[in-house]
Design a protein that fits this description.
single chain; four-stranded antiparallel β-sheet; HisP_aminotrans; alpha/beta; Histidinol-phosphate aminotransferase; binds pyridoxal-5'-phosphate; 13 strands
Length: 350
């Protein structure tokens, strides 16, 4: 008997890099801006917070902090094990076998991976040559295909492109499906849809602590939507899905708005530095609204050449062969990256 279900037979495992590196610019992780304080203070266990009991299933204290951070009510929030869990929860809750999930492409791979796992049909709508999303084309396709869910990554990973708020509203008003806006990088841009959740019954916004808050290691993401959506998804969510230590650290971290905003400003400045330098080298770099830059390079094996210098970036294959994504690092890392690129260009010439 064939034991593995049909839908996942040709699924590939999510593999991560085990390469030796000095500078890690491949996964858009933020810097350690909050953890130093948390390390210093240590985790304080007491009667209310100990590890022999199951964690708070409602993550109440954490939602209180998210409420202050985003200005949304706690009843409009679900938190969990990274926004990856949130993406899966949306599909699990709303999409039946064979139903359509739509997304502009190229984009974050997990939308299509989870679509496949749940036997949904993922359809990608190709963006323009400069990777801008044509919202009218997306609406037209949505009317034609009637998707259950549309995923919009905004700003988009890997291109860094931003869709403006009015375009997203237009989409919301012209589709019968749910529109999930993944705002993993929205701290580095403007135009969040969070303040629109009460205006649309088909809007879900995803956020994470993995990027601007530099806490990818605790796996904490959340969604915000109107109460009706939240109530349904809560029925599907696994009990105690967010462990006590992540809840604890999340609470500590979200209290540091000042530090977070300071860091965001630093990333934006460094992003402009990288963008300018790449363009001056005549490398095609795309304007980015996130904490990374997407660029095209027509010399072979840039990825491998950078690894020889201890620098890890992200490379792409298939239709995106020759495209790369580099996270915005700190000043030293970015300067080193640019210096090495210049060296590689020189070596190519000789
Ligand atoms: C990094 C990233 C996330 C964050 O995922 P977590 O599971 O919260 O770490 C979500 N969406 C996109 C598009 C991302 O690039």
């Amino acid at each position: 008997m064939e034991l593995v279900k049909e839908s996942i037979k040709n699924l590939k495992e999510y593999k991560t890099n085990k390469i030796d590196f000095k500078i890690k610019l491949d996964a858009n992780e933020g810097k350690n801006i909050l953890l130093q304080d948390i390390y210093k203070e240590g985790i304080k266990f007491n009667e209310d917070f100990n590890l022999n009991f199951y964690p708070d299933n409602d993550a109440y204290l954490l939602k209180q902090e998210i409420k202050k951070y985003l200005n949304v009510d706690t009843s409009n929030i679900i938190a969990g094990n990274g926004s990856s869990e949130m993406i899966e929860l949306v599909i699990k809750t709303f999409v039946d076998k064979g139903e359509i999930i739509l997304s502009p492409i190229p984009t974050f791979s997990m939308y299509s991976v989870f679509s496949q796992i749940y036997s949904a049909q993922f359809i990608g709508i190709q963006s323009n040559e400069d990777f801008k999303v044509d919202i009218d084309k997306l609406i037209e396709k949505s009317n034609e295909l009637n998707p259950k869910v549309i995923f919009i990554c905004n700003p988009n990973n890997p291109t860094g492109n931003l869709i403006n708020k009015n375009d997203i509203k237009k989409l919301l008003e012209n589709t019968n499906g749910l529109v999930v806006v993944d705002e993993a990088y929205m701290e580095f841009a403007e135009g969040s849809m969070v303040d629109e959740i009460s205006n649309y019954e088909n809007l879900i916004v995803l956020r994470t602590l993995s990027k601007a808050l530099g806490l990818a290691g605790i796996r904490l993401g959340y969604m915000t939507a109107n109460q009706k959506i939240i109530d349904v998804i809560n029925k599907v969510k696994s009990p105690y899905n967010l462990n006590a230590i992540s809840q604890y650290i999340g609470v500590k971290a979200l209290k540091n708005k000042d530090k977070i905003f300071e860091y965001i400003e630093e990333v934006k400045n460094e992003r402009e530095f990288l963008y300018k330098e790449l363009n001056e080298m005549k490398i095609k770099a795309y304007k980015s609204y996130a904490n990374f830059i997407f660029f095209k390079w027509d010399i072979n094996n840039l990825y491998e050449k950078l690894i020889d210098y201890g620098i890890l970036i992200r490379k792409f294959s298939d239709e995106l062969e020759g495209y790369y994504r580099v996270s915005v690092g700190n000043k030293n890392e970015n300067e080193r990256f640019i210096k090495i690129l210049k060296e590689i260009i020189e070596n190519e010439k000789s």
